[in-house]
């Protein structure tokens, strides 16, 4: 099954 | 002092309609270059980025940078009080704790102003790198909305698969399977009806329908939508706001556990 990833997994905070 | 006047006030009404289901509150960052907003939804699955360039306004003044935290549900309620042909002006004093929206009818015979409290929001900003995407698909915004609506009946996820032949949207669930294929249009009378694909490599990604459906609230903004995809990175769904900016939605993909 596929799992939902999170936006913070891809983009770092500034 | 901050003041931004937009004769085509309905653009702002449409921007709010396209944000309010996804975000409850967000900060509008104002500078002399224009107004920007960046915010994630509560579950941090998607991110919205709005840009309204200063030169797109009929009058724009921003003496010092300010960040106006707003409850978007309240802002949307206020903007719904503006008629589609009203001229909208947003005003705030430096370090003010409220913002004023002024709606003028085109003949100036009716003027309404609404004041709203600003909020102190401590929002996390993410750095989004410039990316060369493996596939960039442009299609009519209404077509994209229809596809997502139709396929949402089948399951919680939509698989978007782009090859040089075209783009395929698929969903599967208890009632069965749905597939919608769009080929690149050979020739069209109107540019806004075209489907165009720029592809470096084939990409297949899976996304939650719930979010894609919320993104299509921006269909009223632009005749075309642009989908940008690369393997295992967030999808970008972009709608232009006239010639003054854009609303971009980023959606994290679903990947194998």
Number of separate strands of chain A: 2
Kindly estimate the percentage of residues of chain A that lie in beta strands according to DSSP. Answer: 35-45%
Mass-distribution shape of chain A? rod-shaped
Order of helices and strands of chain B: EHEEEEEHEEEEEHEEEEEHEEEE
Mean pLDDT across residues of chain B: 96
Unreliable stretches of chain B (pLDDT < 50, length at least 5) are none
Topology as H/E string of chain A?
EE
Helical element count of chain B?
4
How confident is the prediction overall: mean pLDDT of chain A?
Answer: 91
Secondary structure tally, helices of chain A: 0
* Main structural class of chain A: mainly beta
The residue fraction in helices of chain B comes out at: 10-25%
Can you give a write-up of this model?
The complex is a heterodimer of chains A (14) and B (257). Chain A is mostly beta strands and 14 residues long. Chain A has no helices and two strands. In chain A, 7% of the residues are buried. The model of chain A has no long low-confidence stretch (mean pLDDT 91). Chain B is mainly beta and 257 residues long. Chain B is built from four helices and 20 strands. Chain B has a nine-stranded antiparallel beta sheet with strand order 6-2-3-4-19-18-17-11-15. In chain B, strands 5-1-7-8-9 form a five-stranded antiparallel beta sheet, covered by helices on one side. A four-stranded antiparallel beta sheet of chain B has the order 14-13-12-16. In chain B, β17 and β18 form a beta hairpin. The model of chain B has no long low-confidence stretch (mean pLDDT 96). Classes of the chains: A mainly beta (14), B mainly beta (257).
């Amino acid at each position: 099954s596929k799992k939902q990833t999170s936006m913070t997994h891809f983009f770092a905070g500034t | 002092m901050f003041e931004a006047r937009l004769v085509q006030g309905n653009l702002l009404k449409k921007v709010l309609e396209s944000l309010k289901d996804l975000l409850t509150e967000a900060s509008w960052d104002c500078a002399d270059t224009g107004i920007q907003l960046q915010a994630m939804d509560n579950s941090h699955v998607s991110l919205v980025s709005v840009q309204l360039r200063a030169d797109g306004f009929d009058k724009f003044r921003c003496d010092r940078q300010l960040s106006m935290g707003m409850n978007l549900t309240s802002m949307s309620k206020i903007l719904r009080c503006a008629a589609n042909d009203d001229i909208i002006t947003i005003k705030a004093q430096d370090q003010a704790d409220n913002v004023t929206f002024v709606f003028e009818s085109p003949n100036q015979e009716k003027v309404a102003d609404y004041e709203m409290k600003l909020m102190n929001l401590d929002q996390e900003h993410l750095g989004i790198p410039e990316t060369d995407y493996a596939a960039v698909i442009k299609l009519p915004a209404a077509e994209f909305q229809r596809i997502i609506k139709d396929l949402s009946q089948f399951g919680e996820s939509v698989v978007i698969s782009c090859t040089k032949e075209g783009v395929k949207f698929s969903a599967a669930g208890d009632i069965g399977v749905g597939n919608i294929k769009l080929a690149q249009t050979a020739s069209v009378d109107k540019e806004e009806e075209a489907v165009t694909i720029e592809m470096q490599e084939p990409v297949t990604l899976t996304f939650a329908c719930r979010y894609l459906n919320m993104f299509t609230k921006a269909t009223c903004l632009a005749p075309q939508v642009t989908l940008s995809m690369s393997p295992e990175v967030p999808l970008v769904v972009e709608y232009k706001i006239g010639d003054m900016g854009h609303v971009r939605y980023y959606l994290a993909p679903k990947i194998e556990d």
